[in-house]
Each structure stands twice: as structure tokens, then as C-alpha cells.
Amino acid sequence: MTSEREKMVAGDWYTCLDEELEMLRLAALNATHAHNHLPPAHRRTLSAPLARLLKAHGNDCLIEVPFHCSYGINIVLGREVFINSGCVILDSAPVTIGDHTMIGPCVQIYCAQHHKTAEKRRGGVEIAYPVTIGADVWIGGGAIVMPDVTIGDAAIVGAGSVVTKDVAPGDTVVGSPARSIRVC
User: What is the reported pTM?
Assistant: First the structure.
């Protein structure tokens, strides 16, 4: 028998209303709560609670408070990643953020896609798709990155944009849905 966690990891439809997944979410909630309540003097590096929770991280990462993630165990940060305050990462699938990437305040990164049928949504049925953000990316404040999106190296996502499709390396996108613009 396949567990709901195994289905989630495999990219299959799963039920998020599951005891094992709830325990993982509770562990993430405890780690983010500890991180979010550290004294300011301890916030200049990745906090120990988050360092233990994340799947992997490079050197010199900083995640400002408050921060929230669903599981944390699916998040990989490169070197010198900066995540500003109010970021939410719903990491039901892998979320990879490349070296030297800057994420603005209140950015939201989503992996879960809920079922289209109301009855199945009520039962917690969803599927998760990865989000990949390259190196040297800048994501402006309030942007939303939807499931199954890849943002290429050195791309820029304008503040408030909703990214529903892949962004080419070096491209600048703005709007809802985000579209490429010419940058002078």
C-alpha cells in the first residue's frame, strides 16, 4: 500500500488530510515558529531551526521573519539566498532556489494544485508540482509563483506579478499573468 506521503513525493494525486503529512506540517510549524521568534541579534544567518528543517542549503543564506512553509523538507537553497519578510513557501513538491537569488517581501511560492472537483477538494485531494528558481534571480515583493514553474537564471519577476508559466533565463516578467517585457 502506498502512503499519502509516497504519493505526494511521486507526483501523484494524494490526500493532504493525512496523519503523517499533518505531523510533518506540525514539525515545520514548530521550526518556523522558533525561527520567527528568535531575538534580532540571531537573525543574520539561517537560523538553526530552519537549517535543520530544510532539505539542503548553501552558505550565507538569510530568511527574514516572518517566514512560513508547509513542510520545509522539500526546500533546497543555494548559496547566499536572501528571502525577505513575509515569504510563504507551500512546498508539497521540491522547491529549489539557486545561488545569489533575492526574494522580496510577501512572495508566495505554491506547489499544490487542488482537485477541480468540489467533492475531492473537500476530501483534501491535491497534486503537487515542483518550482525551480535559478541563480541570480530577483523576485519582487508580493509576487506569486504558481506550481510547475521554472524561473531561469538571472531572470527578474516584477513586484505583484503572478507567474503561471516558465520564465526564460535573463528575462523580465511583470503583471498578472506575468508577461515578458523589454528592459532598456
Answer: 0.95
